């Protein structure tokens, strides 16, 4: 849904897992559950003594009489846990923090019986250092000509922490692009241990060491790596005490190309060209379109073809069912019928789009009509870009 909110619609009692967040819901009957990821930076101040967050915090909206339990994903490693570890949840009731006990826990989730619903997330109490499954996120500064600058973040594999990092990068005065590199750490991250970032060839890296902590802070710490020579660069994260490699990745020249920026430039150029024709010239030509808005032609667009639907299907990710329900007017039963077959995932997405086409304008739905339905903030940019290219005649099909 909009603003990062998710919606899960179930038709019968049972236990259901969200493939996006890892949340597991147990319900007593069919129900609609709405939920979204929150930041610990707002609620971390309520963790006193030896309490620490163990996984992401969520805001869940559902009838608590139907939603029996929630299992929250956590990033803790419990392979050698001690009996002194206490698992609970921080539950905000009437804007006041309440620590409530968990029902049970596993290697991946902490289960909680629903009492009422509001911001709630898993926490753990222990007097020892706990290992966390970690991730490393790399961002490259764009718009640089002769040098290369990167931000390298170290964090627990926790969606709330990752969300905070992404928000911090977006709010920076400099523009960054995320590098598509395997994020998972090869070894556990331990609180209060120090880590250093090395590179080959050697670059200018600050700070020298970084101490991993679970304390909630307003600004996230990161390494800055600067190179004057072009890639490739091999980056390695080292645990200072043991000198063991925790994570490594090679950044190649192709990784540093800002494809998103190039697409934006092409769209801006197309818009400029589309508005540069004088009114007299426009009246003298017979256009395929009746109207233009912001440089995008929106009416009397040719019927969307199978090839174009397939192109859009390939751009869709795991959110395709939410898109179908929220913006294309399809329901869960129809999507379940599509999934029954043995076809691979892209074909399922294609058949979903084809079903929408059949129901719009007696099967004569146009590209512009599909673009209008899918021009939403929570629809992948790749989908919208592909449709804009088709509308402006840049599709290869």
Helix and strand arrangement:
Layout: E1 6-10, E2 14-17, E3 24-27, E4 31-38, H1 40-43, E5 51-53, E6 57-61, E7 67-73, E8 86-93, E9 96-101, E10 104-105, E11 109-113, E12 119-125, E13 131-132, E14 134-141, E15 148-156, H2 159-170, E16 176-178, E17 189-190, E18 194-200, E19 204-206, E20 210-211, E21 223-227, E22 233-239, E23 244-251, H3 259-276, H4 279-284, E24 292-293, E25 296-297, H5 306-315, H6 320-327, H7 332-340, H8 345-359, H9 367-374, H10 381-391
Antiparallel strand pairs: 1-4, 2-3, 3-7, 4-6, 5-12, 6-12, 7-11, 8-9, 8-12, 10-11, 13-17, 14-15, 14-16, 15-21, 18-20, 18-22, 19-21, 22-23, 24-25
Helix pairs in contact: 5-8, 5-10, 7-8, 9-10
How would you describe this structure to a colleague?
25% of the residues lie in helices and 31% in strands. It has 397 residues and is α+β, with helices and mostly antiparallel strands. The strands form six sheets. Strands 1, 4, 5, 6, 8, 9 and 12 form a seven-stranded antiparallel beta sheet that branches. A hairpin with a 6-residue loop joins strand 14 and strand 15. Helix 5 runs antiparallel to helix 10. Mean pLDDT is 83; it is low at 274-300.
């Amino acid at each position: 849904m909009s603003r990062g909110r998710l919606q899960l619609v179930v038709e019968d009692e049972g236990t259901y897992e969200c493939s996006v967040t890892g949340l597991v819901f147990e319900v007593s009957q069919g129900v609609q559950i709405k939920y979204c990821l929150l930041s610990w930076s707002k609620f971390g101040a309520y963790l006193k003594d030896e309490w620490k967050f163990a996984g992401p915090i969520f805001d869940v909206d559902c009838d608590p009489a139907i939603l029996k339990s929630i299992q929250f994903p956590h990033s803790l490693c419990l392979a050698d846990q001690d009996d002194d570890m206490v698992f609970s949840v921080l539950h905000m009731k009437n804007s006041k923090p309440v620590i409530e006990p968990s029902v049970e826990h596993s290697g991946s989730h902490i289960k909680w019986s629903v009492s009422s619903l509001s911001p709630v997330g898993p926490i753990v109490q222990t007097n020892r250092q706990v290992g966390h499954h970690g991730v490393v996120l790399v961002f490259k500064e764009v718009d640089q000509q002769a040098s290369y600058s990167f931000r390298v973040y170290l964090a627990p594999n926790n969606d709330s922490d990752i969300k905070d990092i992404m928000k911090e990068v977006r709010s920076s005065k400099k523009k960054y692009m995320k590098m598509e590199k395997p994020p998972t750490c090869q070894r556990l991250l331990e609180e209060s241990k120090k880590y250093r970032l090395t590179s080959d060839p050697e670059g200018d890296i600050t700070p020298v060491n970084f101490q991993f902590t679970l304390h909630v802070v307003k600004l996230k710490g990161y390494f800055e790596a600067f190179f004057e020579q072009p890639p490739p660069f091999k980056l390695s994260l080292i645990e200072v005490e043991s000198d063991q490699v925790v994570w490594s990745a090679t950044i190649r020249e192709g990784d540093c190309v800002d494809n998103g920026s190039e697409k934006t430039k092409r769209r801006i150029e197309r818009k400029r060209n589309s508005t540069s024709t004088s009114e007299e010239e426009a009246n003298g030509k017979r256009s395929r379109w009746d109207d233009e808005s912001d440089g995008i032609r929106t009416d009397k667009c040719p019927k969307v073809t199978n090839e174009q639907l397939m192109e859009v299907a390939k751009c869709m990710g795991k959110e395709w069912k939410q898109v179908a329900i929220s913006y294309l007017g399809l329901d869960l039963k129809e999507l379940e019928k599509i999934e029954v077959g043995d076809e691979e995932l892209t074909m399922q997405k294609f058949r979903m789009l084809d079903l929408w086409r059949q129901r719009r304008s007696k099967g004569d739905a146009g590209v512009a009509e599909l673009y209008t339905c899918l021009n939403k903030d929570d629809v992948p940019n790749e989908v919208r870009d592909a449709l804009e290219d088709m509308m402006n005649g840049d599709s290869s099909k």
